[in-house]
Amino acid sequence: MFTIKITDLAKQLNAELFGDTNIVIHGITSIYNTKKHYITFLANKKLRFLLPNCKASAIIIDRENIPFCRITSLVVDDPYFAYVLFAKTIYNASYNSIKKNTKKNYISLGKNVNIGDNVTIEENVKLGNNVTIGSNCFIGKNVNITDNTRLFNNVTVHYNTIIGSNCIIQSGTVIGSDGFGYIKNKKQWLKIPHLGRVIIKDYVEIGSCTTIDRGTLDDTVINNGVIIDNLCQIAHNVVIGEYTAIAGGVIIAGSSHIGNNCLIGGATVINGHISICDRVNITGMSMVIRSIKKSGTYSSGIPIQQNKKWRKTAILTMNISKINERIKIIEQNINK
């Protein structure tokens, strides 16, 4: 288990320490899912309302937020950057522990497990009863795949992923890769370590060449009965509710929450950090940029037209602001 004294962490982050100097930290959590013996961080003052219920043993904050904090604090200029530095420490420690234990490859196999040719299975993997692993698959360390689940050929499942029972994962799919998370450090992009997992629950089907990224701190979760078509991108920390269906080519950006029993049409793009409630139907090629709080059918794609008509429509769209101003002037003249 990873451990670091709060005083050592304060030195590492060049932070001022306020509070208990005897705390030992086992890791870092998001401000949404805090727990004892872990440190969290507050980088957005809009989330101050979460501080009264914070269960973390310590928090990384800036000086502006000291009056709102009741637990041991590490005060820095940029809490988000400090979080990334600490996450890199945890990630490197975990990687080094993997290298030290490469000779201890323990695999737990249930009954009637079927493993194809050229499969790589790393340490501490658990495969349940009647699991099928197709040829050329890669299964990373600490992966748990439950009963009656089938992986077709050339599927990659990265470390710490949990896959439930009776799931089907088609060829070429990648589960548990790092999300697209970076922070700008002067002129360079600094990669944010992804310490979360992917959790796929029961009776889920995932099409070919779909990617599901692991969470940064919290997990990416695909709930019971979800079906996902080919060539979809599910970014880090996304949560998809039960029995939702997602057609091909859909892109869901990070930290979005999709409700239960939704239908997402093909080639739809869903913005990050938004929520879609239960029983929402989104027609194909839509662009969802705001949260949807009421069930129903939503559309935003432009239907196909003959090229000449489309050009006229495009010109009208580009001039809509001018047209709107002219209408306002006419309305004002009428009112006079």
Could you give a short description of this structure?
This protein is α/β, with parallel strands linked by helices and 336 residues long. Helices cover 17% and strands 28% of the residues.
Give the fraction of residues assigned to helices: 10-25%
Q: What integer value in Å does the Rg equal?
A: 24 Å
> In terms of structural class, how would the helical and strand content be classed?
alpha/beta
The geometry reads as flat
Sheet of most strands: 10 strands, parallel
Summed over residues and divided by their number, the pLDDT gives a mean of 94
Q: Terminal Cα separation, in Å?
A: 76 Å
Task: List the total number of helices.
Answer: 4
Low-confidence stretches: none
Q: Which CATH architecture of the largest domain would you pick? A: 3 Solenoid
**CATH first level of the largest domain:** Mainly Beta
What is the third-level CATH name, the topology of the largest domain?
A: UDP N-Acetylglucosamine Acyltransferase, domain 1
**Which band does the percent of strand residues land in?**
25-35%
Number of strands: 37
Let me know the CATH homologous superfamily of the largest domain.
Hexapeptide repeat proteins
Domain tally: 3
> Looking across the biggest beta sheet, what order are the strands in?
9-12-15-18-23-26-29-32-35-37
Structure explained in plain terms:
Strand 20 (182-185) and strand 21 form a beta hairpin. This protein is α/β, with parallel strands linked by helices and 336 residues long. The mean pLDDT is 94. It is flat and about 80 Å long. It folds into three domains: 4-100, 3-Layer(aba) Sandwich (Udp-n-acetylmuramoylalanyl-d-glutamate--2,6- Diaminopimelate Ligase, Chain: A, domain 1); 107-298, 3 Solenoid (UDP N-Acetylglucosamine Acyltransferase, domain 1); 308-336. The strands form six sheets. It has a ten-stranded parallel beta sheet, with no helix packed on it. A nine-stranded parallel beta sheet has the order 8-11-14-17-22-25-28-31-34, with no helix packed on it. A nine-stranded parallel beta sheet has the order 10-13-16-19-24-27-30-33-36, with no helix packed on it. The chain contains four helices and 37 strands.
